[in-house]
């Protein structure tokens, strides 16, 4: 959750970060390590929560960082909130 702001933080990362009191720390290289009972090496992330708390923003950043690491990713966006151009 970025904060309780109703309006969008789209493209205002610095302002959102300065206003945030709920940090999310994550290392996508370690997410699937040492998980007892796991059957595969595939990493799965599910983000749930109330409306307007930063789920799309957070997942967009995770997806971006994974793409920088040249990871194979699948981004399912049923509301079609993101637009990507294939190059």
Structure description:
By secondary structure, the chain is mainly α. It has two helices and no strands. The longest helix has 14 residues. The protein is globular, with a radius of gyration of 15 Å.
How is this structure best summarized?
By secondary structure, the protein is mainly α.
Any descriptors?
mainly alpha; 87 residues; single chain; P-loop_NTPase
In whole angstroms, the N-to-C terminal distance is 32 Å
Low-confidence stretches: none
What characteristic shape results from the CA principal axes?
globular
Proportion in helices: 10-25%
Major sheet size, sense and barrel closure: none
Which class of secondary structure composition applies to the elements? mainly alpha
Oligomer: single chain
The chain-level mean pLDDT equals 71
Work out the helix count.
2
- What's the total number of strands? 0
Give me the Rg, rounded. Answer: 15 Å
Portion in beta strands: under 5%
Following the backbone from N to C, one meets helices and strands in this order, namely HH
Topology diagram in text:
Blueprint: H1 13-19, H2 55-68
